[in-house]
Amino acid sequence: MMYMDKALQTDVVIVGGGLAGSLAAAMLARQGLRVVLVDLNEVYPPGLRCEKISGRQVAMLRKSPIVDDVLGAASPFSEFWVARFGRIVEKRLEGQYGISYDALVNRVRRSIPGTVVKITGKVTAIDCSDQRQAVSLATGEVIQARLVILATGLNEGLRRSLGITREVVSKSHSVTLGFNLKPVGRSSFDFPALTYYGEHPTDRVAYITLFPIGDAMRANLMVYRPVDDLCVRALREQPGASLGGLLPGLESLVGPVLVDGPVQIRSIDLYRSKGHLQPGVVLVGDAFGTACPAAGTGTDKVYTDVIQLCNVHVAQWLKTAGMGVEKISAFYADPLKVACDRRSFNEAFRLRSASVDESLSWWVQRRVRFVGQLARGTVQQMRSRLAVRT
Ligand SMILES: Cc1cc2nc3c(=O)[nH]c(=O)nc-3n(C[C@H](O)[C@H](O)[C@H](O)COP(=O)(O)OP(=O)(O)OC[C@H]3O[C@@H](n4cnc5c(N)ncnc54)[C@H](O)[C@@H]3O)c2cc1C
Questions:
Q1: Residue 241 in contact with residue 235, Cβ under 8 Å?
Q2: Atom of ligand 1 nearest to the CA of 287
Q3: How many Å apart are CA 244 and CA 259, to the nearest integer?
Q4: What is the full DSSP assignment across 7-63?
Q5: 222 contacts 296 by C-beta, under 8 angstroms
Q6: Among 70, 164, 281, 358, which residue is least crowded by beta carbons within 10 Å?
Q7: Closest CA to 173 of 366, 345, 360, 51
Q8: pTM, whole model, 2 decimals?
Q9: How do residues 220-270 score in pLDDT, each as one tens digit?
């Protein structure tokens, strides 16, 4: 904790040092701006959130100066197997990484330049105008800035105090379960990583994805059920038996498995902000709106928001006086941000329908996807066999 005798003056104050806020601090400080970052915790605490960096997200991160720092802390894998209807349909080549969310955020924090003033504490109030912003801490101290970046994730308090409301688009949209799996009777799994899709719409399973984090094989199971559903409770209490009951074909593909350690469970509401267009303050990441974990687009939104905000907008805004809504609105209208938000939203509902909808049209779409992936996988295998021979 840093103590201040009088109001600290800065260019940008970032409230919230999760993935979005920490990445913003790392990027803006490298542009030579004066940045203050305030977060509740000195070290980001463990908890179930995003645990994988996809190939698409690696490409996004390459637009930030800290990509190598981040990826250096993660477990890489270059191939993952896709299974539908109980059989492997494709062995897809794509560089991905497993990393726990707290390790990811703490790694980003480590790459924040020493010029950033980091404060461990709680922000209790924000007063914004089109000139100067005032951010008050629980200790009574005040930070004055030209711009506030609100990156407080799911925490509603500060948004509400600014008159920003949440429009819940889909309550308890999906539930994520996170746990480690161990092979029984052998020392390792046969696959580098695997995504196994739900077997029948009535199971209300999107998929289970298995991937390495360090020495462990991590599993993320995505289901469309209420968090107090009997099946979710059974997965918490007797995970091994319940997993076999929910996805009976999984064991015949991966062999006998043991759930090792606790099962973490989180339900997520899909929401977006209303009333966020205000002078002096800009919302990024989950503070602006959530994504469905099953669709795996939450950190796409974080990376896109922060990279566009920092690479395109902030330095430009600071060149001229004032921080009125005409400046702030340019970020919310940024074409890459708008496209990313739209894709994330659409994918949340497409995947849900593809997983649980029992209508004929979705039945056909599932089969078409299955046949398409199977064809792609077969061609790929033939090509690699030919390459080995020549
Ligand atoms: C179970 C689950 C699984 C997910 N899986 C995936 C996935 O597979 N792929 C994917 O792309 N995305 C996934 N996501 C989404 C992704 O994890 C989030 O979109 C991302 O973590 C949001 O980051 P953030 O920085 O906006 O919020 P956070 O990381 O929550 O950071 C918010 C920060 O604000 C701080 N804060 C809050 N209030 C205050 C205050 N008053 N004063 C000071 N500090 C404050 C907190 O301490 C915290 O550090 C998942 C999410 C969940 C819940």
A1: no
A2: 26
A3: 11
A4: -EEEEEEEE--SHHHHHHHHHHHHTT--EEEEES-SSPPP-SS--EE-HHHHHHHTT
A5: no
A6: 358
A7: 345
A8: 0.95
A9: 999 999 999 999 999 999 998 999 999 999 999 999 999 999 999 999 999
